Amino acid sequence: MSDESRPLLVDRTPFPDGLDERLHAQFTFLVEIDRLKTILRQSPLVAAERRENDAEHSWHLAMMVPLLAEYADEPIDVGHTVQLVLLHDLVEIYAGDTPLYDPAAGVDQAERETVAADELFGLLPEDQGRRLRELWDEFEERRTPEARFAKAMDRLQPLLLNWMARGGTWRTPGVTADDVRARKAVIGDASAELWKAGRLLIDEGERRGWSRSGSGNA
Amino acid sequence: MSDESRPLLVDRTPFPDGLDERLHAQFTFLVEIDRLKTILRQSPLVAAERRENDAEHSWHLAMMVPLLAEYADEPIDVGHTVQLVLLHDLVEIYAGDTPLYDPAAGVDQAERETVAADELFGLLPEDQGRRLRELWDEFEERRTPEARFAKAMDRLQPLLLNWMARGGTWRTPGVTADDVRARKAVIGDASAELWKAGRLLIDEGERRGWSRSGSGNA
Prior knowledge:
Two copies of one chain form a homodimer.
Chain A: H1 21-32, E1 40-44, E2 51-53, H2 54-68, H3 78-87, H4 92-95, H5 109-121, H6 126-141, H7 145-164, H8 177-184, H9 187-190, H10 192-207
Helix pairs in contact in A: 2-3, 2-7, 3-6, 3-7, 5-6, 6-7, 7-10, 8-10
């Protein structure tokens, strides 16, 4: 699956001779991840009339973690959680964004993202590539309190953006308020308090007609 | 100087009744900082034909810190340094970006940014606002190894972008390679190794005509 000949951004302006080999690998990776700024998400920004990109989203999550960590149901290491949110979407550089409300897009998501992770983290010196891969696996597997809290931030942040947009992606055709509640419920795996707040916004949005009422909900 | 009546982003879609007061303040701040995604810097992206914004820039620095911390001349706390880079540009939400090579723009920068900090961090619950203000002051004052390393990342990242753009802001009229070296020299306050690499790129850029040769340099 991996395309061995994928051109790297750094190939456009190769670094000069004389750059230390390890630093060369690190700079190559750091230039390549500039691509995250071009991966568009579905969520609309609050402050401008355009969609958010993955780098902006990741920064926003990283700002949320220390401010909202006090609501975590289990103690979390804030710095570690920040690391997880900073890199959680990196694989989308090669695998693309998978919209939350598009079941078809999720079918081969895991496989595409694993290939992307091998390729992207493989640009780094081996020890650092392995470290980032472990962090990404941790986020994906959600076995640690930090990974669950990171995932909660990943769901809560677009919820805030959608609230501000009076619907946003909640208005996606075919999506109901029940679907939104189902997709966002993982917030509750990390924090009952934050999920209570998230529910309040989703329920009130439904009441105002910003999402289509699903059957059998409050 | 402070405009008491500055409209907040959250005023466009106020949160519903029933949201806890502390969480209300935290969400208000988290929505307001969406503005960082609209503050444009001078640096050109590598991956797209546009300028970088502050949120993307801050995310990029946060990715650099753990990967390049091994080059710090003094031991640094990586998580703390990440916190500093994530918030270092927040005051530009109200104070605007101050271009590195524009001496006039820097004249009242400190005053504008202090007013902005009072206003922005004042949106948070008092304890958290104070905490973020302390972190921002630490970054500005550069008294700690973490603040010096954060500043080095802030200078090194656009250096990589400018290298990739074969000049970028190095081509600003009136700016010479000596000016670039002078502005970037703070990298050496945190890491001799990274400053050596930075110098290599600047010197090679000058040799290739991507910046105007200043007098008296190598």
